[in-house]
Each structure stands twice: as structure tokens, then as C-alpha cells.
Design goal:
The protein is of the alpha/beta class and about 725 residues long. It has 26 helices and 15 strands.
Length: about 725
């Protein structure tokens, strides 16, 4: 298992010194630390999550949030253009007139269409202050200039936003671009700007997803490599294929679930906090009072709705349990037909069944009310949502309708109100997605727990300290009181004792195939006995090196895969000291040479495990040649269970005759002809040796052997 590959300080010092972004890296590290825990930390490499890709993802998210804010600004200006139509009517004091000219860049003296200015004077007060004459009562501040603008683009918002922090930027754009000073041109400009901003934001989101996918794949890649290493460590112990099945499930499904979860987690952690903050910033700048007024009803409504959903789920679960009990009771009554008919209780049974059926239907209807969105609590949710939404719409409408004054310094326009609603509509799904992180994290931890349990399995076979070179089998192979049981506790060998002379041919058979397979797996130490010893010429194989043991004890599986590479590389099996001639001789010995030379490139033909040109019999003969070229003293052959054609069977008979000369061969047979040609058969039953001898003798003297032969080779075995 991989632990965190580096500490936060290390990340800060390296990345911070190089990019000058130490605080950002620390922030990202703290976010990742908060999201990952327990087994998830041990499965995923923190280094892979905190590389520069996560920092790049953060900056793309920041750009996307900024572009979203600009899109809302563009939407507000576009809506304002459609509502106001570029019309603006103002009564300005001389000071405001100067500011208007500076803000808009429009001079009232120029003959520009759509601008009209006329003097206006405020009415005199009824009574003047003492000491002020009537002539002095009309001050400069009371002299107003009426300015009327028509079809002047976004000029109304340039003047409206003159006192806000972003108003200067809008005014600068208005002064700099004549397109924004006329309605139709401003419409084209705003739509084009919105399209460009939309495309740029889509590019940012695409980059976020691409980087998130890369981070997730990079993080899970180490887990998949660990799975591969673990399968190589413990896969040799797989007697019944359960380990391979579990590893395949983990590799294909669980790690993919982990990858998708990490992708969602990373993109959500990086994207949505910035998006939510950006939208909150927009709301507060549009109208901070209204934003705060919306907060309390929304929070209260969310809490009430959440409680309603929880109550509905609990009630629905209770009703489902009651329905299940009623179903079981109704179905159970079907078993009473013999007794009911025998006692003449049909009418009573009909009445009882009808009452129970009506109760069952009422519960079903009640269940539908709780599960139907249009029923309860769906109806309650609808009513609460309607009340909350109506109140919130009233708040925003009142800000639009009420004129500015002392109580409300700045009224809201229709365009700003719609933009406010759009921002609310964007922030609610973002918050909902952010809240789903807890469930995503829970699923990730469950997946990580499954992976960790598999990765923590310790191989039973290890090389002893001080192990010595083990000489090839030359005299006696001895099973000395061997006991073996599977990890699930199933005993396959229980005090097994027998001796086999070298340079002969044997077969291991058992009614339970796992017993014979376990005995064969013990020889190259694919598995380890819990008790007893296996001796080769008096030497305990547990004290020999694995390399020396497996060099002289080779196992040929029934479904051994092809090695990626040429036929020659398949025959050599990674051995670089073997020559082409040795490989060819081994292929000829097992009758593989005939089909190899017929391949497209002969011995240089590239093979894969899915290579369709070879049938099962050809693959098996290739595996035999790969074992024979190593010239082992002890060869264990597991025959394929799939049907072989008659030609292949004949070739295998001759190949076995050649292979068995001068070495000890043990078969796990699937054909009766193979059993008959062996010198002795070891019959295992319930963990012990039930019989040992040649086939002809066992057929007459061993009931267990006769039973095994009948079960595996009788004429109608495939019809049972």
C-alpha cells in the first residue's frame, strides 16, 4: 500500500519556491486532506493528487468563475438594453452635468442624434431664509439641465453604475467603443461578447474535466499497479480461480469506480467553491440587502424540505416492510390448499384471504402516496416551495417597483432583477452538487476498503532466511504428514503421506478436484502447507531457494496464457540463454513445430493472449514445449478440460511418451487414456491417500477410484 508520498511542508517548499504559489498549494493540500481519509489515504498517492495538474485545474476553475461573472454582467447589460432601449431622461445640476459628460464621453454641444438638453429651474420655496432676497434664492444648485437620450445603447447603465466599483470599467468600454453607444450595434456587441465568453467558459470547464480525469487516472494507476503486483504475489495460490475472479472484479469495476469518484471529487472540490463564491459576490454587488433577505428564507426552506424528505424516506421504508410482510403472508396461504380442501374450509379461507388482500391493497395505495412526487410529502414540498418562492419573488419585485430614497438608496432595475434570479438559479445547483461530496466520499472509502483488504493479503509462501540451493529430484519425492486448508478453512489435505520414486509417471486424482490440485501446487511451492513437510531426496523444499526449486519443478496449466511476443519468445519464456535450436527441438518434441512453421512468420509470428489462430490443443502443446525447453527434473502437467480433436489427442500420446523419458512427470488428468499410461495413480479422498497403484489394480481394489472414474468418464456424465 502506498502511504502519502510527501508531507505538506515538502510540497510547499518545492512548488512554492518554484512557482511562487506556496499558499495556494497549501490551500489545495488542506482541501484534499479534508476529502481523503482512512483507507482512501492509503490506497491513493497524495503526490499524484497534488502535482501541478491540480494547481492548473484550480486556475482553470478560477478563470471559469470569472468568465461566469462576466457572462452575468453581459446578460444584465443585454437585458437593460432590451428593457430601456437606450433611453435616458435626467435632470442634472451643473456639477452632475460635468460628471455625466466625463462618465459617458458625450458632449451636449456636439450635434449627436438622440441627445437633447434644455434648461430647467426648480420652483422657488414658499418662504426664504431670513436675509436672503428673492433674487438670491435661485442658486446654482437649483438650476437643472434636462438631458434626454434616445437609442444610446448601454448609456442608462453607464450612468446608473457611476458609483459602483465596476462602473468605471463599463464607462470606459462605452467611451472606447462606438458600438456600445447605439442600440443595434450594442445588441450585436453584447451578443457577440456573450458568445465569446460562453465559448471561453466551455473551454475552461473542458480543461477542468480533462485535468480532473488525468489526475484521477494518474492516482488510480498506482493502485492498478499494486493490484498487478499483488496478483503476481498471491495469484499462484489460486486453486479454484477465486483470487483471479476477485482481482478482475477489483481491477475492472472497483478501480473504475474509484477513478470516477476521484474525478468527481477533484473537479467538485476545485470548481464549485470558486463558482459559489463568485455567484455570491455577484449577488452581493447587485443588491446586498436583497441577497441577505433571500438567505434566511432559502436556508429555512432547505431545512424544512430536507426534514420532509427524511421523514418521507423513513415512512416509506416502514410501509415497504409492512407490504413485504403482507406479501409473505398472502403467498404462505397458498401452501395450505391441501388442508383447506380436505377440511372443507374453502369459504372461510376465501373470506380471510379477501380481508388480507384489501389490507395489502390499502398499504400499496398508502405507499404510492409517499413515493409519488404529486402526493404527500410531494404536495407538502410543493406548497412550501411555492410559499418560499412567492415571498422571494415579492422581495425582488418590491426592490424593482420602489423608487430610490432615503430608505432604499438604490432601486433595482428589471434587468438587474432578472440577473439576480439567474445567479440564484446557478448557485442552488452548485450548492447541491457541493453537498453531494459526502456521499461520493463514502462510496470512495467503500471502494478503497475493498482494494485495501485485497492488497493487505500476505502470501503464504516466502523464502526462508538462509535458504540453500535445492538439487533436482533424483530419488524419492515424499509427502510427510502434509496438511493444507484454504483461507476459508476448508481442509483439502489432512495428514497426507506417500512416497514416489523418481523418473516415473504418476497421476493425482480425487473426487474433489481441488485436493489433487492442492497436492500438485505444493510441489513448486505455489501454496504452503500448514503442517507437515514435502521432501525431495530427503531435503525439505521449504528450506530451499524458490529459484532453484522452480527451475527444476515446472507446472504446465491447462489454460496457461500466451506470452506477448513472438513464438520464439513464448518458447523461451524470458530465458535469454536459450538458443533458437533448443526452442525448435522442444517444439518438435511436443509436436508444436508442425503448426508453428505454418504460421505467417513461423517462429517470429507475434502472439497475444487473444491470438485467434491457435486452438486450445495448439496452445497446450506450446505450453508443453515452453516447459520442456527448460529440461526440468519434475514436470507437472494439468490437462485441459476442453474437448480436444482426435488428431491432437494422438499427437499428445506420442508427446507424453517423449516427455516422460528421463524425468518425473505428474499428471492432473482429464482423459482416461492419460491415467492408464501412468505408472501409478495417487487417489486422494477427504485429505488422505485412499489408494496408490496402477490403474488396472485400482479399478478392482479401490471403490473411491472406481467412483472417480465413473463420475468423470461414464457415458452419460454430461447429461446429469
Amino acid at each position: 500500500m502506498l502511504l502519502w508520498c510527501c508531507d505538506p511542508d515538502g510540497i510547499h517548499s518545492v512548488r512554492g519556491s518554484r512557482l511562487g504559489l506556496g499558499k495556494t498549494s497549501d490551500t489545495l493540500a488542506s482541501i484534499v486532506d479534508a476529502a481523503f481519509a482512512s483507507s482512501l489515504e492509503r490506497i491513493l498517492s497524495r503526490r499524484s493528487l497534488l502535482r501541478g495538474h491540480l494547481l492548473a485545474c484550480f486556475f482553470w476553475s478560477l478563470a471559469a468563475a470569472l468568465l461566469q461573472g462576466l457572462l452575468l454582467l453581459d446578460l444584465c447589460l443585454l437585458l437593460g438594453l432590451l428593457v430601456d432601449r437606450g433611453q435616458l431622461n435626467l435632470d442634472l445640476t451643473p456639477a452632475d452635468l460635468i460628471r455625466f459628460t466625463q462618465q459617458s464621453g458625450i458632449s451636449l454641444a456636439e450635434p449627436a442624434a438622440g441627445i437633447a438638453a434644455s434648461p430647467a429651474t426648480l420652483p422657488q420655496p414658499a418662504t426664504l431664509p431670513q436675509g436672503v432676497t428673492e433674487a438670491q434664492g435661485v442658486t446654482e444648485a437649483q438650476v437643472l439641465v434636462h438631458v434626454a437620450c434616445k437609442e444610446r445603447g448601454i448609456l442608462p447603465f453607464v450612468w446608473r453604475w457611476r458609483d459602483v466599483w465596476w462602473g468605471g470599467a463599463v464607462a470606459f468600454l462605452f467611451r472606447s467603443s462606438s458600438w456600445l453607444q447605439w442600440n443595434l450595434l450594442a445588441l450585436v456587441w453584447l451578443l457577440s461578447a456573450g458568445a465569446v465568453l460562453w465559448v471561453l467558459r466551455a473551454i475552461c470547464l473542458r480543461q477542468i474535466r480533462a485535468l480532473g480525469d488525468f489526475i484521477a487516472m494518474d492516482a488510480v494507476a498506482s493502485t492498478r499497479r499494486q493490484l498487478h503486483r499483488q496478483v503476481l504475489r498471491i495469484g499462484v495460490e489460486d486453486l479454484d480461480g477465486a483470487t483471479h475472479k476477485l482481482a478482475s472484479e477489483l481491477f475492472v469495476n472497483v478501480t473504475e469506480q474509484l477513478r470516477q469518484g476521484v474525478f468527481v471529487l477533484i473537479t467538485t472540490l476545485v470548481r464549485y467553491p470558486l463558482e459559489i463564491l463568485g455567484l455570491l459576490f455577484v449577488l452581493l454587488n447587485l443588491d446586498w440587502r436583497l441577497a441577505l433577505q433571500w438567505l434566511a428564507p432559502l436556508a429555512l426552506g432547505a431545512i424544512v424540505l430536507n426534514q420532509l424528505r427524511i421523514s418521507a424516506q423513513q415512512k416509506s421504508s416502514q410501509i415497504a416492510d409492512q407490504i413485504e410482510r403482507e406479501q409473505q403472508s398472502l403467498v404462505a396461504s397458498f401452501r395450505n390448499s391441501r388442508m383447506i380442501r380436505g377440511l372443507g374450509l374453502e369459504q372461510n379461507e376465501h373470506d380471510r384471504f379477501q380481508k388480507q388482500l384489501e389490507r395489502y391493497h390499502r398499504q400499496l395505495a398508502h405507499s404510492e402516496k409517499w413515493s409519488d412526487p404529486a402526493g404527500y410529502p410531494g404536495w407538502g414540498v410543493f406548497l412550501i416551495g411555492t410559499v418560499v418562492l412567492t415571498f422571494l419573488l415579492f422581495l425582488i419585485s418590491s426592490h424593482i417597483l420602489v423608487d430610490g430614497g432615503a430608505a432604499i438608496p438604490a432601486r433595482m432595475t428589471i434587468a438587474e432583477g432578472i440577473t439576480f434570479l439567474v445567479a440564484i438559479g446557478l448557485i442552488l445547483p452548485a450548492i447541491r452538487t457541493w453537498r453531494s461530496l459526502a456521499e461520493i466520499r463514502r462510496q470512495l472509502i467503500l471502494a478503497a476498503d475493498q482494494l485495501e483488504r485485497f492488497l493487505r493479503q500476505i502470501p503464504s509462501v516466502t523464502q526462508a532466511v538462509g535458504a540453500k540451493f535445492l538439487h533436482p529430484l533424483a530419488k524419492i519425492l515424499h509427502f510427510d504428514n502434509v496438511k493444507f486448508q484454504t483461507p476459508s478453512g476448508r481442509i483439502l489435505l489432512d495428514g497426507t503421506n506417500f512416497q514416489l520414486a523418481a523418473d516415473k509417471c504418476y497421476a493425482f486424482v480425487s473426487v474433489n478436484p481441488l485436493e489433487a490440485r492442492a497436492a500438485a501446487f505444493l510441489l513448486p511451492r505455489f501454496i504452503e502447507p500448514q503442517a507437515g513437510r514435502i521432501l525431495i531426496d530427503g531435503e525439505d523444499i521449504a528450506w530451499g531457494t524458490l529459484e532453484s526449486l522452480r527451475a527444476e519443478t515446472v507446472f504446465v496449466g491447462a489454460d496457461d496464457p500466451l506470452i506477448e511476443g513472438s513464438v520464439y519468445q513464448n518458447l523461451c519464456g524470458g530465458r535469454t540463454d536459450l538458443t533458437q535450436q533448443q526452442a525448435t527441438d522442444a517444439a518438435k518434441l511436443t509436436h508444436a513445430h508442425q503448426f508453428i512453421v505454418k504460421l505467417f512468420n513461423g517462429y517470429e509470428t507475434l502472439l497475444t493472449d487473444e491470438f485467434a489462430a491457435l486452438d486450445a490443443g495448439q496452445r497446450f502443446r506450446l505450453s508443453l514445449a515452453r516447459a520442456v525447453v527448460r529440461n526440468p527434473a519434475l514436470l507437472i502437467i494439468e490437462e485441459p478440460s476442453v474437448g480436444l480433436d482426435e488428431d491432437t489427442k494422438g499427437l499428445l500420446v506420442d508427446a507424453y511418451d517423449r516427455i516422460c523419458r528421463g524425468r518425473t512427470v505428474i499428471f492432473l488428468p482429464s482423459r482416461l487414456s492419460t491415467v492408464r499410461r501412468t505408472d501409478q495413480v495417487v487417489v486422494l479422498h477427504e485429505g488422505k491417500v485412499a489408494a496408490l497403484g496402477p490403474h488396472a489394480q485400482l479399478v478392482t481394489q479401490s471403490p473411491v477410484y472406481r467412483h472417480w472414474e465413473y463420475v468423470n468418464f461414464h457415458e452419460y456424465r454430461h447429461e446429469v
